[in-house]
Structures are given as structure tokens and as C-alpha cells.
């Protein structure tokens, strides 16, 4: 079964709105074993919409449209479906009654143009919209099926779960694929891909790499007679090749993993940040319940604050400047003691765009002070093009990932340098 | 000139990634008078990409693709362009040298598959990528032009601004429309729209409202014989109706405005954060040169830290809990004195999902302590749907905006409550 999405609206082409509906639909359908094969965005023009529907139906069995079902005169999906079907638009008395009741219940009077939402192409089925005014529509066209859904996200989602997905699942039968995403931090995309070559060669297995600053997610897709069993086998193989670089799966982000590890141990962390200005604390408090594991932090942006608030020795700062491994170690121990947490996590480095104290952009030292141990410091070299206008943001984001990853490794008692102990397992060596 | 976008990648169809690149491109081009007429998303399949490029070129003069230029074997844009052009893929020695240098500078060895990023279809021009490994490509095809850009957002953006936009503007000639975006904070979308009704009625002027948590951007589009003059007139009218809620224009974000205002006065700010966990400090250090205006901060997430680190009276915390206007005032004055800055900026509130100390989600108190004055506190009621899965992030983001806006108003000597002194100017009254 081939499914295409058609998202309708000028606001999407002009970038006023990000196409979150298409992403949500793609994921929801994929989770139920249905693959979207193409997504198209067009503006609010009748002939363009008609042509896009017809062209999608030449390729696909099912076309799902979102948007263009509202009351205003640039909402043209109803007209487009009627035109594509060569059918008349007919006002539906039950829909009209419901619209009048909704408006009366809100103590307002009906704008004449709102009645357009009661118009239905002949031969189409109305999909009741429990969340809003404009119903969805289902119409058979050119050997395929079109589901037309409203563009308001929660209305669209409710209609998909209530009506579209059950019908598609019935039409498709048993799912032919199974999927899982592994998440890694602190390891390069090309290194990940090289290590996973043996998995890539497995029959019926496909890998996709989704990089973001400092992280790579690997999506494993297994297809065949028993996709679940094949997926489990591929995942085992991938984990064996990647080792402890895999920190989680699916939607489990690194901050959530760290939070869970701390919570399991009844432990807390405090942060001392320089180049990130508070990003690490923000990340560690993003999820509900973070007060159980995050105590607080110090943003020691000015160099003298590193000494005055965290007790980094003044002569160390004078001799080496603020960007030095020993400074990270002192910051980590200082913030742990000062806030009174089990772990202290500290970063110092150069976000750019200019070098600092003679150190190039991308220099980074991360320190973790654990309970009763000497602080651990790693100094990864961040791969950044100096001077780029967005490099600063990327360095800061990578720093957050490196910091959380070192904390994770320290809590678990793993080697501080991600991936090093697995170079031996590298299939290329 | 007709421009179509073609976004390439399974991860977009499957919804692992939201198509932010298409939204950014649509907006950037629209801001420069170039309208995108269609957006298409396809997966990582060679023949599908070739067909999509060819079909886009039948409708459009310019096709911009993003994605599929990376090192792995599912990156197929280079091959697709070569196939569509009937040209060979040739390894570029200068690109290969640059790849080897980048990898060597990071102290690693080059994976063989990474060399694919040095392959160029014959007849294509290389667009140097200052931000990453994979260059962009420009190729003339079927009477049109294709720009192939990497999918990594900051790399794509840099290439668009450096190369694609200047070339498109030259190709398009004088724009028929002029556009400008005004930025407001702390005022509701419906209030903005009601106030701007007279501007909306001006001939040749169109307004679009772009809300994000705590902010509304207003895009003014002027069309006609002299779009520049009409735009200037519409902007004057809009500014008169909105008053000091307008904090900036275009890409000038609120943190940059605050940074500029502080820099002009040679002043610094320190932050004391509770529910935001460091987000405000992170925002104030996002732009280069922020060390001139941002000193440092305290993330006092645990309640006792508000007393111990910032001197908030213990009996105040005992009597009223941590979420109280007086706590915000003490935090602001405490962090100003402790860090040694000209301004102290503090927030305390309830991000959710659960109420805290009997206060509902969305409760917020923002305090600013200026040089030599009593702290100012505002307590805006944040409009949030309690219990929604996205509410916590929205509350935190709105808190950042409210905090920066109060700091801006305090520096400028404006009334603390945004918009109140302009209700009198409301055209509806």
C-alpha cells in the first residue's frame, strides 16, 4: 500500500508554519507499519490542488490531505475534491445543524462563510470531527482513496487515530516491517556507519543515520516474513559493534537517560558552566520531575567568578587562562561541594567565533566530580569550522552532549572516552 | 521566477525529523521577495529522486534540494543529479584534499566512504561549505537550475545566504513587493491584530501574524508601484498603533536587543533562575561578544539554594514558598550583588506539569534589580493548557521572553507592564 501526504496552505510554503502535521502523520503511520512514500506541499490555489491530488493518485493507493477545510475563501480542499471527482458540492443538513448549534453554544452568531464547512462533494463520506467545526472527508477517486483532514493539529490527530489508521490497518493487513532507533553520543557518523557495515549487509535490514550535533541516531528497519525477530537480531548485532556508545533507544534522549540513572541511585547533580551559559542546567531541567536529580548550578561566565564562586585557584587561572583541564576539574569539585550534590559537572571551552587565551574555537574540557573520587576530565576536540556564523551554536550544543555523556559514563563506571575501548572490536581492524 | 523545494530523506517521510529546512527556506526566500510554489519530500531512492527533480524542473525555473549529500550510501543526491543530467560523477581533487585536511585536523583517519563527498557531476559547480564536509552543488538542467544543499540546517543556511540568495535576487531583478517584520513581546496575537486593523485596510498592504510562545511577529508586505515607500508608510502606522511593544525588526531577536542596550550603556546583567534551569543565561550568551554584557548567574533550582546562595529570607520561603513576588525581588537583588553586575534578573514560577506550593502551572514572577533602585516585579499570567504534554516547554520559553522583556523595559525606563500605556491608543476604543 502506497500512501502520499498532501499538505495545503500558503503559510507552509512561506515558512510561517513548520510542517509538523506531515512529520506527525509520517511517524504515526510508520509506527503502525504503513510507509509514507512522498509528501507534497502546495498553496491555496484550486487548480494546483486538483492537479496535486490527481498526480498523487497516479502513484499512490491512499492520499491524505491536511488543511484547506476551514471557513475562509482560501480554504479550497472541498472544491478541489469535487472538481477532481467531477461531482457537485452539496450542503449537508446535519453538518449545518451542528455548526449552528456550536456557534449558538458559544453565544455567537454564525458568519455566512462558516456554512461552507457543511459542504460535501457528492459521493464523499463525512468523517465527524469531535474537536472542531470542520469535518474530515473520505472520497474514492481514480481507483484510490483520499482522506481530507483539517489542518488544526489536534483535530487532525484525533481524526487519524479514530478513523484513518483503523481503516488503513484493515486495508494493509499485517505490517511488513519492524523498526527501532538506537541513540549514540560522542562518536562520528562515518565511524558508526563503518562499524555497522556487517549489519547493513544482513538480508532484509536497512539502516538510516540521523546525525545531530554530537549525536547519531541509527534507525534499523527489518522487513520479511518475521520482521520482529529479524529486528531483534539486527539490534543485537548493532549493539555488539557499537558497545557502550549506545545510550538509549527511540525517544529516550540523553538528558532523560542521565535523569533516570541518577534517580535510580537517589543521586543529584550540580552544574558549573562557562561557554554554555546555562544550557546544561536547562537541559537537565527540561523533563518533569527533574528536581529529584538536579540541585542547581553556577554560570561562571566571567573568569574571576570561577575563582570567587567556585574556588578555582587564582594562580591556575593566571598561568593557563580559563580554558584548561585543571580548571574544569576544580570547577566540577567546587560546584559539587558548594551546591551540595553527589556529582559536579563542569565545562570550560571556546565557543567562538574568536579564539580565547590563544585556544582555538572548539577547544573543550569537561569535568565530572563524583562521590569521593578524583575528578575525571576529558578534552574532546570538537570538529568545527572556525568563523562560521552558526559555529557558536553548534559548539555549545556539542558541549551539552559531551557533558551529559561524560556524566553518564562516570555514573555507570565506564571509560571516560566514548568508544575507545571498542576500537578493538572494530570490524575493519 | 518559480522556485520549488525538494527535501530528500527517509527520516522526513517517517517523521523522525520535522521539515524545518523547508520552513526556513520558504521564509528566507519570501523575505527577499521570492515565493516558493511547491515543496516535495521524497525518500532515499535514486529513481524517485531523479523523477522528482525532473518533474520539478518541468514546473519551475529553480529547484532547491536539501539532504542526501552526506557520506553514507543512502546519500544519493549527487548520483541523482548526475543521472538526470546524463553526466558522469567525477572525484574533485581539491574537495578530496580538503576532506583529508579536516579529518587530519581532528586527529582521525578518513573513512573511505567519506570520499563520496568529493564526487561532483560533470558540469556542476561546487558551492563551498564553510560549515561542514559536504559541499553544495549547482547544476543547469533542462532549462532550469538546481541548487543541491546539505541537509544539516546550519550548513544549508550558510550556503543559502552566501550563494543561493544573491544569485536568485540577481536572476529575479527588482522585487515587486517589499516586506518587513516587526517583533513584539508580551502582547497577545488577537490584541495585536485588533490594533492593526487600520493598517490591514491600507491598499496594497498585507499583514501576517506569526506567533511563538510569548512573542508575535508581524510581517508587513507592501505591493504596488513603489513598494518601498508604501512599506515605510505601513510600518510607521503599525508602530504608532503598537507603541513600545515593538522591540525590534527582522531577525533582531529579543536577546540581541537586550545585549545591544546593555552594551550601549557599558552595563552588565546577572541571572537567578529557578523554573528555567539556565535557559535565560543560555539565551543571553547565545550571541558572540556576550561576555561584555553577561557576567554570570545562579541556577537555584532547589528551594534552600535561594536562601543559601542568594540571601532570600528563610522565613519568606517558609511562609509563602518559593513562588512569590517578594522571592523574585530578593533573588534579583541577591544575584546582582553576589555576581557584581549592574542588573539582576530573576524568575520563579511553576513550569508544570504539576502545581507547586498550591500555585497553578503558568504562575510566574519576574524581578529586575537595577542600579540603585528598588527591584521591579511583574507577575504575568501565562496562558497555558494545564496538563498538556507540551505545556512545560511552553511555560519555560514564555518565561525567558517575559524576563528579557522586563529587563528591556527597565533599561529603557518604560512601564513594567508591556502594552498597558498604549491601551489608550487602541483604535477600537
Model description:
The structure is a homodimer of 429-residue chains. Chain A has 15 helices and 17 strands. In chain A, α2 packs parallel to α6 (153-172) and α10 runs parallel beside α15. In chain A, the strands form four sheets. The first copy, chain A, has a six-stranded mixed sheet with strand order 2-1-3-8-7-6, sandwiched between helices. The relative contact order of chain A is 0.09. Chain A is an alpha/beta fold and 429 residues long. The first copy, chain A, is 39% helix and 22% strand. Chain A folds into three domains: 3-172, MoaB/Mog-like domain (Molybdenum Cofactor Biosythetic Enzyme, Chain A), CATH 3.40.980.10; 177-249, 2-Layer Sandwich (Alpha-Beta Plaits); 254-412, Alpha-Beta Complex (Maf protein). β2 (36-42) of chain A pairs antiparallel with β2 (36-42) of chain B, so a sheet runs across the interface.
Concise overview:
Chains A, B: Belongs to the CinA family. The first copy, chain A, is an alpha/beta fold.
Can you tag this structure with a few keywords?
15 helices; homodimer; 429 residues; disordered C terminus; 3 domains; six-stranded mixed beta sheet; five-stranded mixed beta sheet; Alpha-Beta Plaits; Maf protein; elongated; 22% strand; 39% helix; Molybdenum Cofactor Biosythetic Enzyme, Chain A; alpha/beta
Amino acid at each position: 500500500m502506497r500512501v502520499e501526504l498532501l499538505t495545503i496552505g500558503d503559510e507552509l510554503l512561506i515558512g510561517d508554519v513548520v510542517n509538523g502535521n506531515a512529520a506527525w502523520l509520517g511517524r504515526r503511520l510508520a509506527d503502525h507499519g504503513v510507509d509514507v512514500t512522498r509528501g507534497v506541499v502546495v498553496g491555496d490555489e484550486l487548480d494546483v490542488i486538483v492537479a496535486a491530488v490527481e498526480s498523487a493518485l497516479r502513484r499512490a493507493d491512499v492520499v491524505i490531505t491536511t488543511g484547506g477545510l476551514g471557513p475562509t475563501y482560501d480554504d479550497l480542499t472541498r472544491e478541489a475534491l469535487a472538481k477532481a471527482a467531477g461531482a457537485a458540492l452539496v450542503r449537508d443538513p446535519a453538518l449545518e445543524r451542528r455548526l449552528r448549534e456550536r456557534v449558538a453554544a458559544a453565544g455567537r452568531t454564525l458568519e455566512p462563510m462558516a456554512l461552507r464547512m457543511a459542504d460535501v462533494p457528492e459521493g464523499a463520506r463525512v468523517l465527524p470531527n469531535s474537536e472542531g467545526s470542520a469535518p474530515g472527508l473520505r472520497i474514492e477517486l481514480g481507483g484510490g482513496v483520499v482522506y481530507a483532514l483539517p489542518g488544526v493539529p489536534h483535530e487532525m490527530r484525533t481524526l487519524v487515530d479514530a478513523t484513518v489508521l483503523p481503516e488503513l490497518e484493515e486495508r494493509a493487513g499485517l505490517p511488513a516491517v519492524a523498526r527501532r532507533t538506537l541513540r549514540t553520543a560522542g562518536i562520528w557518523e562515518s565511524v558508526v556507519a563503518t562499524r555497522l557495515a556487517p549489519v547493513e549487509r544482513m538480508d532484509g535490514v536497512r539502516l538510516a543515520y540521523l546525525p545531530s550535533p554530537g549525536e547519531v541516531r541509527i534507525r534499523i528497519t527489518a522487513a520479511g516474513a518475521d520482521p520482529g525477530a529479524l529486528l531483534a537480531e539486527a539490534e543485537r548485532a548493532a549493539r555488539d559493534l557499537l558497545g557502550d556508545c549506545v545510550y538509549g533507544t527511540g525517544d529516550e534522549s540523553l538528558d532523560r537517560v542521565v535523569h533516570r540513572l541518577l534517580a535510580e541511585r537517589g543521586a543529584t547533580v550540580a552544574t558549573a558552566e562557562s561557554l554554555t551559559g546555562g544550557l546544561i542546567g536547562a537541559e537537565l531541567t527540561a523533563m518533569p520531575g527533574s528536581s529529584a536529580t538536579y540541585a542547581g548550578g553556577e554560570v561562571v561566565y566571567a573568569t574571576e567568578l570561577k575563582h570567587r564562586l567556585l574556588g578555582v585557584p587564582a594562580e591556575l587561572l593566571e598561568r593557563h587562562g580559563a580554558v584548561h583541564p585543571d580548571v574544569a576539574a576544580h570547577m566540577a569539585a567546587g560546584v559539587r561541594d558548594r551546591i551540595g550534590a553527589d556529582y559536579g559537572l563542569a565545562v570550560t571551552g571556546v565557543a567562538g567565533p574568536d579564539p580565547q587565551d590563544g585556544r582555538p574555537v572548539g577547544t573543550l574540557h569537561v569535568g565530572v566530580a563524583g562521590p569521593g573520587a578524583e575528578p575525571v576530565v576529558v578534552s574532546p576536540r570538537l570538529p568545527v569550522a572556525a568563523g562560521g556564523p552558526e559555529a557558536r551554536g553548534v559548539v555549545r550544543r556539542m558541549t551539552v552532549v559531551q557533558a551529559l555523556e561524560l556524566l553518564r559514563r562516570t555514573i555507570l563506571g565506564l571509560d571516560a572516552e566514548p568508544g575507545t575501548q571498542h576500537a578493538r572490536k572494530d570490524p575493519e581492524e
